[in-house]
């Protein structure tokens, strides 16, 4: 999902816990129930009708990757973790 977010693609995702947490935290998309294609269609239709919302999700997602969800940040966290083991 992080590649999509960085590429400026808003996320429409099924409501699994890890995605709900990340997308909710970053406000970069909308969820639907995994077993409800009608709800998925409604979500996509609403996004098409409201380009300002779509643009908000794009901006939030890209900024989240730039600020937090990238290897520079994760790498620093890993180095800190490994240094703590010594």
Structure keywords:
86 residues; 70% helix
What does this structure look like?
The chain is mainly alpha-helical and 86 residues long. Helix content is 70%, strand content 9%. It contains five helices and two strands; from the N terminus they run αβαβααα. It has helices spanning 2-6, 17-26, 37-49, 51-67, 71-85; strands at residues 11-14, 29-32. Strands 1-2 form a two-stranded parallel ribbon. The N and C termini lie far apart (34 Å). The mean pLDDT is 92.
Write the layout of secondary structure elements.
Layout: H1 2-6, E1 11-14, H2 17-26, E2 29-32, H3 37-49, H4 51-67, H5 71-85
Parallel strand pairs: 1-2
Short overview:
The protein contains 5 helices and 2 strands; from the N terminus they run H-E-H-E-H-H-H. It has 86 residues and is mainly alpha-helical. A two-stranded parallel ribbon has the order 1-2.
Mean pLDDT: 92
From N to C, what is the helix and strand string? Answer: HEHEHHH
Task: Give the end-to-end Cα distance, rounded to a whole number of Å.
Answer: 34 Å
The oligomeric status of these chains comes to single chain
- What is the rounded Rg? 16 Å
As laid out across the biggest beta sheet, the strand order is: 1-2
Let me know the largest β-sheet. Answer: 2 strands, parallel
Helix content: 55-70%
Uncertain ranges: none
Based on CA inertia axes, which overall geometry fits? elongated
Tally of alpha and pi helices: 5
- β-strand percent reads 5-15%
What's the β-strand tally?
A: 2
Summing up helix and strand content along with how strands pair, one would put the structural category as mainly alpha
């Amino acid at each position: 999902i992080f590649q999509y977010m960085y590429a400026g693609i808003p996320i429409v995702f099924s409501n699994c816990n890890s995605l709900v947490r990340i997308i909710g935290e970053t406000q970069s998309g909308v969820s639907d129930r995994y077993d409800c294609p009608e709800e998925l269609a409604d979500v996509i239709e609403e996004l098409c009708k409201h380009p300002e919302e779509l643009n908000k999700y794009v901006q939030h997602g890209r900024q989240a990757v730039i600020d937090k969800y990238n290897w520079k940040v994760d790498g620093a966290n890993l180095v800190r973790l490994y240094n703590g083991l010594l």
